[in-house]
Amino acid sequence: SQRVVIIGAGIVGTNLADELVSRGWSDITVVEQGPLHMPGGSTSHAPGLVFQTSPSKTMTHLARYTVEKLLSIEKDGHKCFNQVGGLEVATTPARLEDLKRKHGYASSWGIEARLVSAEECYKMYPHLNNEMVLGGLHIPSDGLALAARATQLLIERTRKAGVRYLGHTPVTGIERDGRRVTGVSTPSGTIPADIVVSCAGFWGVELGAMVGVEIPLLPLAHQYAKTTAVPALAGRGINNMINGMNATLPILRHQDKRLYYREHGGQYGIGYYGHRPMPVVAASLGLTPKEVDEMNMPSRLEFTTEDFDPNTEVADGFNGVFSFTPDGGPILGQPSHLDGFYVAEAVWVTHSAGVARALAQILTTGRSDIDVSECELSRFEEVQLNRDYVSETGQQNFVEIYDIIHPLQQRASPRNLRVSPFYARQQELGAVFFETGGWERPWWYEANKDLVKSLPPSWQPVERDPWSAQLHSPISAAEAWKTRNAVAMFDMTAFHRFDVRGPGAVGLLQRLTTSDITTKPGTVTYTLILNDHGGIRGDIFVLRLDDDVFQIGANTATDLAYLIREARVQEQNTPGQWIQVRDITGSTCCIGLWGPRARDVIAGISTTDVSNKGLPYFSLKKTVIRGIPVTLIRKSYVGELGWEIQTSAEYGQRLWDTIWQAGKLHGLIAGGRSAFNSMRLEKGYRTYGVDMTTEHNPFEAGVSYAVDANKKDDFVGKAALQRLSKQVPSRRLRALTVDDGRSVVLGKEPVFYNGKAAGYVTTAAFGYTIGKPIAYAWLPGYVREGETVEIEYFGKRIRATVEAESLYDPEMNRLRQ
Ligand code: FAD
After folding, report:
1. 260 catalytic residue (yes or no)
2. Residue 166 near residue 29, CB atoms below 8 Å
C-alpha cells in the first residue's frame, strides 16, 4: 500500500487514519506537534455540540455519518456521543419562520425533526425563560460529541491496526520531487510518503505555504465560558468537556441572541457569537509546549471579559481558536499543481468523521459516496484566495453565523472584484448586480421597469409571498417576455471558458467526456464528465475551434483543476503529446443574443451567413462584426434562436455598443440572470452542483442525451454507464409545475408523495412563458408524469404536478429555426 503521512492528530486526522485502516491501508504515520494525549488543537477544547441540519445536503449528510460513527466508538460501556437531542428556539417571529424552513431542510435530507410549541420547549428545557420563547425545532438525533475522547479511542484502535503516531513532532517542511510530494521533514528527520494529508486545522495556512498552496481559511478566536454553579442543575455530578455522557438536557441554540448552550454537570457551557471577530495568525502562537493541559494549549487564548455580552457569572472562560472560510464550508481535496498532497481543514467536529470518510474514499476509489464538490479546495477562484479576501469574508461569516440568510442574499463587501467590459453600460441601464465567484452579474435592469406595465395579461407577474419576493423584481417577467417575443442580450462573461490546445488535446477530451469530440472544427458539443462510477462530475460545452484547439465552456474552477491535472496525467502517458490548458474567462467576454429577432440584429452588422444553413444550431464561426473579431456560437441556454458572441476583453464595450445600436430597430433590451434562470428551467437545462452532482448518473438526471452510446473510444465512466444503462433508475430529476399557478418556492424544499417525504427541490423559478412556477425535484423513479406531489414551504403543503419535459418548445423548433 502507498505510504501515507497525516499531519495533525485532531478529530479529523485520527478519523482519517481510522477510515483508511478500515479500507485496508497499512502504511500510515500520523505526525502531531503536540503531545498525543492532548494535542492542543481545536479538538482538545471543543464543547462538541452537533447540530446536524443545514441548508446543505452535503454538510447534513457528513454530519449524519459523524453521529453514526461517534455512536459506534465505545470503551468501557461509554460511547463518544451523547444523543441528548438538539433544540433551537425562536424568540422572534422571523426566527420562528426560519425554523420552519429548517424543518424543511431536515425533511429534505432525511433527518427526523419536529417543530415544537413553546410549552414543549419548556418541557424539554425547564430553565428557559417562558416569557420569551415562541417555539422551537427539535432534532432527537443531535447531541454532544465527546471529541477529545473519540480522538484518544481512535488513536488506540488505529495503533493496534499498525498506524504509527509521532507526538511532539512538528512538520517543518514538505518534501517534493518536481510535482510530487515525497515526504515531510521534522526535527528528527524526513518521513518518506507517497501521500501527505494536512489535517492541521487552523494551522492549515502554514502547512499549505510549505508547498506553495494557498489555503483560504482564517483562524478566529471564539468565546466559550462555563457559568458558576447553577442551582437548578445542582446534583448533576461531574460532567466536564471530555466526559459529557451524563448530560441529559438537549443542546440548545438561542440564535436570536447568538448563543448556544450545553450542560456541564452543575454548570452551563455558553458559546457566544455576538462578539467582534478576533482573527489570529496561527504562526504567531508559537510552538506547542511540551506540557499541554486543559488550561494551557495553543488553541486556547485568554478570555476577554469585555467581549462577553451574556449577563452571566463566568467561572471559567476562554477564547478558543478555529477556522472560518470565505463561504463557510470546509476545505477538502488537492491542489492542481501537485500530486500526492491533500488537505482536510476548516472542518467542524460535527462533520469530522464524514469528511474523513469522504477523503478516505477518494484516496481509495477516486470518489466519495457523498458529493463533496462544495467542499473542494479547487472551488475557489484565484481572487478568493488572497488573504484580504479570506480575512474579510471569513470575519463576515463569523458575524453572520446565526443570522437568517436569504438564499439570494448578497454581501455588501468585497464587491466589484471582477466586472465584465460591459459593466459601465450595464450601470447606465440600472443593472442590479448579484455576485458570484467575485463577478458582478446583472440580475435585472431597472431600465426595463416600464415594460412591466405593457405586458400582456397572461404575462403579468403574480404577487409573491414576502420571502420569495425578497431580492426579486417583476422586471424579470418583462425581460423574459422580450426574449421570447423580440430579442435580448445577456452578459455571459462570468461563465468559465478554458482554452485547451496541443497535439494531446483530442485524446484528453475524448478520454474525459461522454461524447465523440472528434467532430470537424466548427462544431459545438454538450457533454458530461463522469467519475469511474458513472457519477456526473461536470457538464461542459466543447467547442472545436481547430484540429488541436478547443474551447471549453464550464461551470466551476474545479473543472479547470480537473482538466489541468488530467492533462498532466495524459502527457505522462503519451510523451510528446503536450496539452496546454488555460483559463481565458477574464481575458474574453461574451454576449448571449437571443430571441426570434436575433438573426435580424446580427444580419444588420455582419456579412457572415447567419442563416440556419450557414450557421446551424451547435456550430460556430470566427468572423468580424463591424471590425471586431468575434466567435459566433450558435447555442442558447434560454431555448431561443441566437448566438453567444465572444470576443477578447478589449473589444467588449465596442461589441456591446455595436449590438445595442443595431438592436434598437428590433426592440432589443438587456436581460438579467433572473429572467435567464426562469427560461433555463422552462427549457429543462440543468445546473451542475445544484440539480445534479457526482451522486447522480446521467440516466437519473435526465441528461443521457449527452452520452454518445456509440462512442468507440474508452472514456472515464464508460464501463459504469454500460452497466447503469440496463437498470431502471430508482430516482429521477423531474420537472414540476405548481398547481395554484402562483406559489413560488426557492429550492431545497422537501417534496411529499402520498403524504410521505419522498424527495427535494433542486432549483425553482416562476416560468413566465408557461405562466406557472416551476420546481425541479429529485423523486423516486416510480412517481409518474401527471401525478400530484406536494412541496412543503414554511410548513404549508403546495400541490404540484409532475410534468413531461421540456416545458417549453420540446421539439426545439425555436432553437433550430
Ligand atoms: P485540530 O483539533 O486543531 O487538530 C489539528 C492538529 O494539527 C493539532 O493537534 C495541531 O497540533 C496539529 N498540527 C498543526 N500544525 C502541525 C505541524 N506543523 N506539525 C504537526 N502537527 C501539526 N465544532 C463543532 O462541531 N461543535 C461545536 O460545538 C464546536 N464548538 C467550538 C467552540 C470553540 C470555542 C472552538 C474554538 C471551536 C469549536 N468547534 C466546534 C470547532 C471544532 O472544535 C474544530 O473545527 C475541530 O476540532 C477541528 O478539528 P481538526 O482535527 O481539524 O483540528
Report:
1. yes
2. yes
Q: Is 388 a catalytic residue?
A: no
Instruction: Report whether residue 320 contacts ligand 1, using a CB cutoff of 6 Å.
Output: yes
DSSP codes, 613-676: TTS-TTBEEEEEETTEEEEEE---SSSSSEEEEEEEGGGHHHHHHHHHHHHGGGT-EE--HHHH
Q: Across 97-242, where does the E strand assignment appear?
A: 114-117, 135-139, 143-145, 164-166, 173-177, 180-186, 189-192, 195-198, 218-227
Half-sphere exposure of 76 (CA within 13 A, CB side): 4
* Ligand 1 atom showing the smallest separation from residue 260 Cα: 28
d(CA 811, CA 684): 13
Q: What is the CA radius of gyration of the chain?
A: 28
First to last CA, the chain: 58
Extract the C-alpha cell encoding 338: 501537485
- Catalytic one among 65, 105, 224, 260? 260
Instruction: Render 356-422 in DSSP notation, one character per residue.
Output: HHHHHHHHHHSS-SS--GGGBGGGS-GGGGSHHHHHHHHHHHHHTTTS---TT---SSS--SB--TT
The answer to whether the CB of 34 is under 6 A from ligand 1 is yes
Residue 433, all three cell numbers: 448586480
Q: If you search the block for the grid coordinates 404575462, which residue do you land on? A: 459
Confidence at residue 309, expressed as pLDDT on a 0 to 100 scale: 83
- Any residues with CB less than 8 A from the CB of 808 and at least 6 apart, and which? 639, 679, 682, 683, 767, 769, 770
DSSP annotation of 92 reads S
pLDDT digits (tens, 9 = 90+) for 683-722: 999 999 999 999 999 999 999 999 999 999 999 999 999 9
The reply to whether ligand 1 has any atom less than 6 angstroms from the CB of 16 is no
pLDDT band with cut points at 50, 70 and 90 for residue 244: low
Q: Is the pTM above the cut of 0.90? A: yes
Site to substitute for ligand 1 among 16, 348, 359, most atoms within 8 A of C-beta: 348
The C-alpha atoms of residue 767 and residue 456 are separated, in whole angstroms, by 15
- CA-nearest of 760, 555, 702 to 61 is 760
Residue 131 has pLDDT above 60, yes or no: yes
Distance (Å) of CA 100 to CA 52, 253, 463: 16, 15, 22
Q: Give residue 217 CA to ligand 1 midpoint distance, Å.
A: 13
Residue 241 pLDDT > 50: no
pLDDT for the residue numbered 237: 56
Is 45 noted as a catalytic residue in this protein? no
Q: Which helix (H) or strand (E) holds 551?
A: strand 549-554
Measured from the Cβ of residue 458, the count of other Cβ atoms closer than 10 Å reads 10
Q: Closest Cα to residue 90, out of 248, 257, 250, 262? A: 257
CA distance linking residue 22 with residue 352, whole number of Å? 16
Per-residue pLDDT tens for 588-601? Answer: 999 999 999 999 99
pLDDT digits (tens, 9 = 90+) for 446-485: 999 999 999 999 999 999 999 999 999 999 999 999 999 9
Q: Is 781 exposed, middle or buried (0-12, 13-18, 19+ CB in 10 A)?
A: middle
Task: Let me know: does 118 contact 107? Beta carbons within 8 Å.
Answer: no
pLDDT over threshold 50, residue 411:
yes
Nearest atom, ligand 1, residue 221 CA: 36
**Exactly one of 61, 103, 138, 222 is catalytic; which is it?**
222
